[in-house]
Amino acid sequence: MTYPLTTPRLSITPLTEQDTATFVAYRQDADVARWQGWDPTYNDDDAAELINSQPATDLPESGRWLQLAIHDVETGKLFGDVAIHTLDDHDDTYEIGITLAPANQHLGIATEAVKRVLDHLFTAANAHRVIANCDTRNDAVAKLLIGVGMRRESSQIDVEFFKDEWITLDGYAILTNEYSA
Ligand SMILES: CC(C)(COP(=O)(O)OP(=O)(O)OC[C@H]1O[C@@H](n2cnc3c(N)ncnc32)[C@H](O)[C@@H]1OP(=O)(O)O)[C@@H](O)C(=O)NCCC(=O)NCCS
Q1: Considering Cα of 59, then 61, then 63, then 65, what sign does the dihedral take?
Q2: For the chain, does the N or the C end have fewer beta carbons within 10 angstroms?
């Protein structure tokens, strides 16, 4: 079994119903939901649907996401989540996404979690390429992705009408040879 992935501060393992209360609480935060595909009305039923439909495999099948909980390795407290998406039309390519509860941001936890997931994808899963997409106005995630070694390689202007406005999505990527270097 691949999980938990551990770091000095973190234990990363598939999200379960024990995470529901904290997970729902930060998904209801307007500043967190602003950049994501849900809105602050997110509730326990939405979380149950997501958790019950989680892949049972260590890595999601093509086209699916696996949501991983980021816990404090000492206390088990849920800090946030990091998700892995196996792209269905690109071999050995994965997309990642991350969300932390506001109280756990700016502490380097996101950086520590993403680095561990990249290590997992490039070493255990033999990934060729890992990507992430984000709103061009989301400075926090841009800084995080550059900080872990990803390149901004695209910017799709007004690519999507999202939450009542046209948004520009920036694409970030890292290849296995870049990761090794
Ligand atoms: C994106 C997110 C996970 C980043 O978490 P974080 O806790 O700031 O990450 P870290 O503490 O590891 O910090 C990474 C870097 O980003 C910087 N940063 C954090 N917030 C920032 C902001 N609002 N503006 C500019 N830089 C910011 C940090 O200072 C740090 O830089 P440093 O290494 O030079 O000190 C967090 O902001 C979040 O959960 N946001 C809401 C959900 C979201 O937008 N997810 C991404 C969707 S694609």
Answers
A1: negative
A2: N
46 CA → ligand 1 middle, Å? 25
What pTM does this model have? 0.95
Task: List the chain domain ranges.
Answer: 5-180
Ligand 1 is surrounded, with C-beta below 6 A, by 32, 35-36, 97-100, 105-111, 134, 138-141, 143-144, 147
Atom number in ligand 1 closest to CA 97: 48
Indicate if the pLDDT at residue 1 is higher than 80. Answer: no
- Mean pLDDT for the chain overall: 97
Classify 45 in phi/psi space as left (phi over 0), alpha (psi -120 to 50) or beta: alpha
Domain 5-180: give its CATH superfamily.
Answer: Gcn5-related N-acetyltransferase (GNAT) (3.40.630.30)
